[in-house]
Amino acid sequence: MNLSQARERRVLTGGVDLCVAELGDAGRPTVVLVHGYPDSKEVWSDVAVRLAKHWHVVLYDVRGHGRSTAPKPLRGGFTLEKLTDDFLAVIDTVSPDRPVHVVGHDWGSVQAWEFVTVGRTEGRIASFTSMSGPSLDHFGHWIKRRMARPTPRRVGQLLGQGAKSWYVYMLHTPVLPELAWRGPLGKRWPRILERMEKVPAGDYPTASLPDDAAHGAWLYRDNVRARLSRPRADAYAHAPVQLITPTGDSFLSERLYDGLEDWVPTLLRRSLPAKHWVPRTRPDQLAAWIDEFVTAIESAGREGAPAQLTGAQGPYAQRFGGQLVLVTGAASGIGRATAFAFAEAGARIVAVDRDAEGAARTAEMARLIGAPAAWGEAVDVSDEAAMEKLAARVAAEYGIVDVLVNNAGIGLSGSFLETTSEEWKKVLDVNLWGVIHGCRIFGKQMADRGQGGHIVNMASAAAFQPSRVLPAYSTSKAAVLMLSECLRAELAEKSIGVSAICPGIVNTNITATTRFAGTDAAEEERLRKRTSRLYGRRNYPPARVADAILRAVVRNQAVVPVTPEARGARLLSRLSPGALRSVARLKPPL
Amino acid sequence: MTGLTAGVQHEITPELRGFREVQSLAAACAEAVAGQLRSGVTEREAARMQRTWLRERGVRDWFHLPFAWFGDRTAFAGVRVPLRFFPTDRKLEPGMPFILDLAPVYKGFTAHVGYAGCLGLNPLHDRLLADLEAHRELILREVRERRSLREIYEDVERLMTAQGYANRHRAHLFGVLAHKVNRVAEPRWSPQVFGFGAQAIKGLMSDAVHGHRDGWSPLWSPYRFSDHPPQPGLWAVGPHLGFRGTGAKFEEILVVTDSGDPKQSAFWLDDDLPHVRRWAEEKVAA
Fold first, then answer.
1. What is the model's pTM?
2. Which of A361, A364, A369 is best to mutate for the B interface (most B CBs within 10 A)?
């Protein structure tokens, strides 16, 4: 399904003729998608078809854009008041007796802020999802507050946003923008979007782009100066708002939404590692969030209760809420703690481990602490066929993985000469091949979807700290580290981040299952106990590694040493590798 | 379980009866106070309610003054120094877990009771409480097998890890899972030192001195000095689970004897305690 299959109708209002498209079952609650500048409703096509599975989706070309007609004269024809008239005319046609859910991007969001904060739409809007477009009134107050009390930080915020708004000043110059858009800029725009924003080609932008952009300049000229200098004091939202902030937006700073809670009684914040044109680059994530938000509002409305927006709280809930996270080695230790940390942020969890019971337990506990859904899967990461099957099943049943954590690993200690080739094979199979399979199979799904994602590979401080007692383990982990850095370079163009985590000595049960090469069973048991106790005494909790992992994903960090000893070793490996080589010769006291 | 201790009922000496009486009293106090906790009550107030309740019933001395922990303090989240045992002004909120920990001395006997509850519904806390049952069984079984205390400690910790929890009794004083309980002298004046009753601590210290000579310790810890089979006597055992911001524990007295019969060699002093009743009720409900 795409927009060409949409039902179209014309709505006449205030001298313009609006082109309205509808998808999905008209008996369902209505979701109205409002496009920005310089776009037409086609910017929404990928999101719209996804939403149409559950909702009655309505899109329209804003006056002067796409196949809607332009007001005459243009000057004064694009005021927010007139745009509100248009919106009311559209929703009165498509959903006369039921409030609608509005979703706005860029100027669509700027308009929708007006819709949701003025009196005459009260009761007609059930919810509003805003992305990349602030309320001009809130923005005006934001600037005023910073001008009134200019602390260095506030001045920095003003200057930062001021620089990002360069195009707003440009659009205020007469004639020139129109000439540029109808001339070279209009021709090159699709290419620019592709290169700068990684917007995939498709039915967008449409051929009407030069005209849309030329007309749309009046959106700025008719509203920006007037509203920013005299912002309304009563711009309070009368419907719940979901704010989606792309963290890499080149035109709007995240700081713009500081203090938004003052204006919006029911606010849900989300953040997305993406650039400005999220409706084109992240349709899956947007559709999922809109779907979840609208569902919550609708079900609250049915029960007559105030909307409970989300269960997950905390610093990472904005970023990971509703995402799909797959963790290998999730039945214990760092893997389990990581699954819990993502669960607490409201992510959906696939807990993978050889130990079926442990994986199921992780999934069960994950649900108890905030994961909207969690599943345990028993798979050995070193088994390629099983991993292929798992990936197919996950994609079919739960969707494409947003964050993949390749954590499963086994320990092997003992000198090189005493390590047998079977032992080498085993440790490389799990520690290295497990990661390769994960990255290759799930990474490919992520790359094919083309909507970003993140891969976390568990390396180790042993990756840069040579040691005479961990040759095989260190080799496998050093390989994982290098693999991660190479993959990071390759996947950057797909907006997929790759992080290698190097924890150091963490209190997990890896020591209780570590194989000690060249020892008999009794001696091995003694060494396991001894190392377990040493690690226990160090007592660095896996939950702190999990925190480091979430932080690494949010910040897209390349290599993350976690414990102080890992950080120290990493520093030494760069400053004075010779010192590390001397340490490597020491026999640990076991 | 009940059958086991029923089998040893006739073995219970007047001395054990004294300990059982104070343990029931402490448990009743915990239940009574837990029933009175409302949203907005602070830890200090909860601790004071326990103190008042027990004083009214004749308690004059303490092994330690009653504690109350609310919210993430039940899991001792981020605790390094043990000073945070003492009740604070943290207020109870709906859905918040709490732990009451009290150790009164009554007629020369002492008990140490831990009571975990929750204000309103909290499925996670229910899970933690239910999972504590396995620890009660594990501890009794392994004590009867005369495994070394250090090993049992490690097995308890292993079970907690398998269940997905962190061992939070590691954050207790000396990281102990249990400590010896003795009769307490009743002098006219027994001061408290940092919240701990001087008489009871004196008993523990004297145990430590004797034990040190004979190679055992009155503190059940993960360290080498606990690497010996369970010492006959009474142990207040308190496994404490933590899961992110939620914690739960129970604490009660385990009797260890030098009997050759495994069933007589160790048993829980009393099965009529809130947490045990709760598990039984859950089984009936299921």
1. 0.89
2. A369
Q: What is the residue whose two structure tokens read 């700025």?
A: A220
User: Are B161 and A365 inside 8 Å of each other by CB?
Assistant: no
Closest chain B residue by Cα to residue A368: B124
List, in order, residues 6 or more apart from A585 with CB less than 8 Å away.
Answer: A468
A514 inside 8 A of chain B by CB: no
Instruction: Tell me whether A207 touches chain B (CB under 8 Å).
Output: no
Question: What is the full DSSP assignment across B39-92?
Answer: TT-BHHHHHHHHHHHHHHTT--EEEEEEEEEEGGGGGTTT--SGGGGS--SPBP
As beta bridge partners, residue B69 has B99
Q: Which residues of A touch B163 (CB under 8 A)?
A: 361
Tokens 């959906």 found at:
A348
B88 vs A106, A220, B46, B71, B171, CA distance in Å? 49, 56, 10, 12, 17
The verdict on A369 touching B (C-beta cutoff 8 Å) is yes
Tokens of A577: 């590798």
Q: How many CB pairs under 8 A join A and B?
A: 31
Rounded alpha-carbon distances, angstroms, from residue A117 to A103, A145, A239, A240, A346: 14, 20, 8, 11, 29
pLDDT at B54: 95
Chain A residues touching residue B166 (CB < 8 angstroms): 541, 543
Nearest CB partner across the interface for B244, out of A344, A358, A512: A344
On whether any CB of chain B is under 8 Å from the CB of A536, the answer is yes
Q: CA angle, corner B248, sides to B244 and B253, nearest 5?
A: 145
Substitution target in B161, B168, B174, B225 with the highest count of A β-carbons within 10 Å is B161
- Active site residues per annotation of A: 473
Q: What digits encode the pLDDT tens for the residues B156-201?
A: 999 999 999 988 887 777 778 899 888 887 777 777 777 787 777 7
Within 13 Å and on the Cβ side, how many CA atoms surround A330? 32
Q: Is the ipTM of this complex over 0.90?
A: no
For residue A429, what are the contacts with CB-CB under 8 A and spacing of at least 6? A382
User: Is residue B1 predicted with pLDDT exceeding 60?
Assistant: no
**A368: nearest CB among B123, B157, B166:** B123
Whether B222 and A536 lie within 8 Å, measured CB to CB:
yes
Chain B residues in contact with A538 by the CB 8 A cut-off are: none
Buried-state track A300-337, b at ≥16 Cβ within 10 A, e below 16: beeeeeebebbebeeebbbbbbbbbbbbbbbbbbbbbb
Residue A471's H or E segment, with its range, is helix A471-491
Give the closest of A368, A509, A539 to B161, CB-based.
A509
The amino acid at A248: G
Query: With a cut of 70, which residues of chain A have pLDDT below it?
Result: 1, 305-314, 590
Sequence-ordered list of residues with C-beta below 8 angstroms from that of B85, at least 6 positions apart, any chain: B67, B173, B195
| Secondary structure, 3-state, A26-43 | CCCCEEEEECCCCCCHHH
Q: How far is CA B164 from CA A235, A542, B167, in A?
A: 48, 11, 10
How sure is the predictor about B3, in pLDDT bands with cuts at 50, 70 and 90? very low
φ, ψ of residue B86 in degrees (nearest 5): -75, 140
In this prediction, residue A170 carries a pLDDT of 87
Q: Which of B115, B233, B222 is nearest to B158 (CA)?
A: B222
d(CA A201, CA A437): 30
Hey, are the CB atoms on B161 and A332 less than 8 Å from each other?
Answer: yes
- Inspect the interface and report whether the beta carbons of A368 and B127 lie closer than 8 Å: yes
Q: Answer yes or no: do A332 and B166 touch at CB < 8 A.
A: no
Query: B147 with B275: CB under 8 angstroms?
Result: no
Helix, strand, or coil (residue B269):
coil
Helices (H) and strands (E) in chain B, counts: 8, 14
Which chain A residue has the Cα nearest residue B224? A533
Residue that the structure tokens 């606990």 belong to: B226
